[in-house]
Amino acid sequence: MFDGGWERSAPEWRSDEPRELIRSIQPDTLVNDRLPGTGGFETPEQFVPPAAPDNRWETYMTMNRSWGWVPTDTEWKSGRELVHTLAETAGRGGNLLLNVSPTGDGSLPAQQVERLELLAGWMDRNGSAIRGTTAGLESWQFYGPSTRDGDTLFLHLLSRPYDSVSVRGLPIRRIRSVSDLTTGTPLAHRSRAAILDELLLADPPGELTIDVPANLVDDLATVIAVEIEPT
User: Fold this and answer.
1) Rounded to 5 degrees, what are φ and ψ at 91?
2) What average pLDDT values come out for the chain (231 residues) when binned by 10 residues?
3) Which candidate, 227, 153, 147, places its Cα nearest to that of 186?
4) Can you give the residue range of the structural domain that contains 37?
5) Whole-angstrom Cα distance, residue 189 to residue 164?
6) What pTM was estimated for this model as a whole?
7) Residues 75 and 122 in one domain
8) 118/143 same-domain check
9) Residues 123 and 160 in one domain
10) Of the candidates 82, 105, 127, which is a domain's last residue?
11) For the segment 35-46, what is each residue's pLDDT rounded down to a tens digit?
12) For residue 169, with 0-12 CB atoms within 10 Å meaning exposed, 13-18 middle and 19 or more buried, which class applies?
């Protein structure tokens, strides 16, 4: 990782020299776009891109407004906001690099520990919807992040639904199961497609509506697992 592309151009930094040195020592080293004129992945900072970049990418995010320990910086992002950032990043096929800033004695501030523990708890319940997944549906198909692992689609609900959520453009005849990821509870669901598609197509795309009971809603983010039969 390098940082400083806004200070000098690639020729001024002689970017090709450290790149070639790195590759000569370890050809598989990942070099990001902070080394001007090179880099194998993009690094947006303090935001999640509204659309997935064309290249591999990783967003850098602080828990408050500062990268280092600043005692006067009390503008902490909530744990819920950090979970949503993680889900939105994964839903666009990216990685999240969450910053920590130790104090002078090397310890982490209580506010950071609290948020890390909250994230860890959510990942204990829903980690399979993040780790090893790829980007899920297009934005027109589902109003929120989604991820995919093989034949399983994960829907991340970032706000409390009134009673149900809908997903569009799914192969409705191949829906194997729909469940709450945390508890494994099966969820009632129903589907529909255009009449002609139902009559003429063997594998019609349609809309899946899923009931979400209030007692299964996670205050941070609820994840629904939809298993689809492979073709």
Assistant:
1) -65, -20
2) 69 85 91 80 93 93 97 97 98 97 96 98 98 97 98 97 94 98 98 93 96 97 98 87
3) 227
4) 10-127
5) 9
6) 0.91
7) yes
8) no
9) no
10) 127
11) 887 778 899 999
12) middle
Pair type for strands 58-61 and 222-228 = unpaired
**Residue 66 tokens, joined:** 């500062």
> For residue 143, how far is the Cα from the chain centroid?
14
Strand pairing class (146-149; 134-135): antiparallel
Say whether both 58 and 109 belong to one domain: yes
Assign residue 110 a region (left: φ > 0; alpha: ψ between -120 and 50; beta: otherwise): alpha
Residue 91 lies in a domain: yes
Give me the number of domains the chain comprises: 2
- Token code pair at residue 73: 């910086």
**Amino acid letter, 139:** S
How many residues comprise the chain? 231
Q: Two tokens at 176?
A: 């194997």
| Statement to judge: residues 108 and 202 lie in one domain | no
pLDDT, residue 31, reads: 84
